[in-house]
Design brief:
The chain is an alpha+beta fold. It is built from three helices and five strands, in the order E-H-E-H-E-E-H-E.
Length: 98
């Protein structure tokens, strides 16, 4: 089971707690996790990734094992700790100011 932590606004939209668990087929990558997340919670489609390009929305970041995975390839394999469920994959709303 893969653990995914969502920001408050996406938790509210999907009507879930802070963390969800997912079954992911094949290699565990940001793309495979987001595909499984959107399949289980269709109301999240288009909120994390663009509908057409499937690119990450600008104000969201991805973290795994304390490292920023936002700019990595969506097909890059995530650490074993995430694949085993020991660590969560985090979707975090970016903070902007100026």
């Amino acid at each position: 089971m893969i653990r995914v932590v969502l920001p408050y606004h996406l938790r509210t939209l999907a009507n879930v707690g802070a963390e969800v668990t997912l079954d992911v087929e094949g290699p565990v990558s940001p793309r495979s996790i987001l595909d499984a997340l959107e399949a289980r919670y269709p109301m999240l489609r288009g909120t994390i990734r663009d509908h057409v390009t499937q690119k990450r929305r600008p104000m969201l970041r991805f973290f795994a094992c304390g490292e920023d995975w936002s700019l990595e390839s969506p097909d890059a394999p995530l650490p074993d700790a995430v694949a085993s469920g020991a660590e969560a994959f985090w979707v975090i709303g970016a903070i902007a100011g100026g």
